[in-house]
Amino acid sequence: MSDLVEFRNLKYLIAVAEEGNITRAAKRLYLAQPSLSTQMRGLEEALQVPLFIRDRNGVHATPAAEILITGGRELLKLRDGLIATARALHRVTFTPMRLGFSSFVDHALYEMVCSVHTSLFPECEITSRSGDNVELLLLLQKGEIDAALLALPISGSGFKTYPFTKSRLVVCMKSDDPLARLKEIAPAQLQAKLTIFQEPKQHPEAHLRLMEMLDEVGIRGDVASKTTTPHNIQWMVESGQGYALVREGSEMHVGLVTRPVTGVTWTVDSALILGKSTSQKTVPGLIRELRKRLRLQVSPSSASKPPRSVRPDIEDENLRLFA
Amino acid sequence: MSDLVEFRNLKYLIAVAEEGNITRAAKRLYLAQPSLSTQMRGLEEALQVPLFIRDRNGVHATPAAEILITGGRELLKLRDGLIATARALHRVTFTPMRLGFSSFVDHALYEMVCSVHTSLFPECEITSRSGDNVELLLLLQKGEIDAALLALPISGSGFKTYPFTKSRLVVCMKSDDPLARLKEIAPAQLQAKLTIFQEPKQHPEAHLRLMEMLDEVGIRGDVASKTTTPHNIQWMVESGQGYALVREGSEMHVGLVTRPVTGVTWTVDSALILGKSTSQKTVPGLIRELRKRLRLQVSPSSASKPPRSVRPDIEDENLRLFA
DNA sequence: CCTGTCCAATACTTCGTACCTATGGCAAAA
DNA sequence: TTTTGCCATAGGTACGAAGTATTGGACAGG
Lengths: 323, 323
Prior knowledge:
Largest sheet of chain A: 9 strands, mixed
Oligomer: homodimer
Distance between the termini of chain A: 36 Å
CATH topology of the largest domain in chain A: D-Maltodextrin-Binding Protein, domain 2
């Protein structure tokens, strides 16, 4: 009978009551609203107790629900404590999570991953390691890091990769540039002016692919200036050396603007790559949670998937995810 | 993180620890042993804590597991209390469960259903009502009972039926009858002596079907004596009026024995039939639990399914089910 | 008045996982 | 040896919790 009520149900109930609004609660729980609605109905059904009074602007807990809520909070806390002590008793010491990330991926993404990890495993340290794709892949290979956030495509196979964000690439220019008056830039207008790139050696595959994509719209990739970090790129644009491609939504120095390029949807795809044989026990839990929050799916070790062509549809939600 | 541990997991853990033996615990929980095994492994995996020391004759909880077990017991108790008070606050009063059962079904089955019901809903009374199939179907039709235990087939459609036990039919005779020396009876030997039946009017469809089955093996159904209860049947056999067919495993008067009939597998199938539109809120829970315990599946309202032909394979487990 | 917004509920589909059966391995008892 | 009593593994199924798409009701603003 009471087997119909699990911790999950209590958690949902509490969230809904606290928000006073199923839609908002669903967002907080990383769920879709109808899912949560049916869960709540199901709970009322199972208990044979009405839990909410629904009205135009939300829901309001009944007295019976209040009981469940306060009791439920208590139970959830007890559960966490219980697990923590059982853990402690067996001296579950986590080796630190060794996470690499390349400058090609959004920093916000990195922070999000870290925040999810520490919220799941507060006792587990994270030791970060940044570098370019080539370096990081080597470290993964050697087992010196457990996972890394990289830009696709990656060479070498046998890596488990979890692709997630696709950021659109836009042109970065000075705000007083004549082209900055336009809302969108035609590819032809970039001819000969798109000259600033990240150092190709940092990610040969991605660079090659980028050159191909430029070629497809008739632009020659003049790698006149090379640099190593997104910041440097912006400085170089500021000093008038040409245009550069940057991730849409990245934070820009003052005096710089970004403009989309008409007719193309170039994207840079980031992914979490796992070391071949990690002993890091937090990895499965991390993946699980990330999958739930970001709706991402596995793509097991095949390194194809060209970095473009998918509708970006930047939901900006992505960046709000880490609470 | 701790979201990986639900009440269910604690319950299983406790059962396993208490039995010291996964197989036995699985039986107690109405689960298959491998299911429980994988659950336990999964829990150890999720917590990153070894919970059991396995050896040749069972499992033994580690200290960490002991913590979880005592804490878990507490939590389960708290949950039950919590739900009970929430319920009480909303004055959830159950209307009594009105359950009918015909004399064609095994009494043990009836008791089992009752015991499951009261263990699920201790506050809910059961008012029983016995009668023959025809009467009970009428009562279901009129909504005067919520559910009934009947023998298939049933006429009239639109009833949700949950078939469960199939009991084999055997011949009942006096122990000093010459045929009682045989281990099995050939159909031909029954000719003209199989004369005692339940009153056909109590269940016309079943009687008809029985006559058909007898016909198939060349026996004429001579309904010489008719009676209304299984007990009466036995008395009539005792007084030497002929043979009768009874459910295998039914309790027999002293001086009577049963013998299987070679070459045929006649069975009588019992089912739980639901009223067309019951307001009885305990029904879904009851069905759910019965399905879990007996592995029975729905057969939605079609009244076909002839009462024979399926391997009986009486597991006798059936009767031990109600604890 | 209509239209847009903000709720929750419904209908239907998809996917994960808890469960099943069948089988294997291993140690102790027969 | 074979049998017995465990647990573990492998592979398939089915139910439920999740998703998407859509509807309906109740305001509020133009």
